[in-house]
Amino acid sequence: MKKVLYYLPRVIVSLLTLELIVVLLDGIFTEFNWRNTLILLIPTLGVLAATILGWKYPKVGGIIFSILGLVVIVMTLITPQQFEWQPVVFLGAPIFLAGILFLAEGFGRPK
Length: 111
Hints:
Blueprint: H1 2-28, H2 34-56, H3 58-77, H4 86-108
């Protein structure tokens, strides 16, 4: 169980980072200008930095990913357009789950 608790959040955030990199590369190879590429690059670098921090310091990564997941879920729920459940299920929930798993692993780790 300890190995699952150790590796599962890392796999989730690694897949999330890869997903954002694919979106970034898709934006680069289409008709985007440099501003649109920069807009896609900022969240990708932020998630990559949070992934590196979470890998080394699980408590810090847990806090960052829990807050990030809650922000994605709340922003999706309060949009003025009609409610879309796909961003919550495919983006917000895995990020929040990774944050909770990082926290569980961080607080369960012996000092």
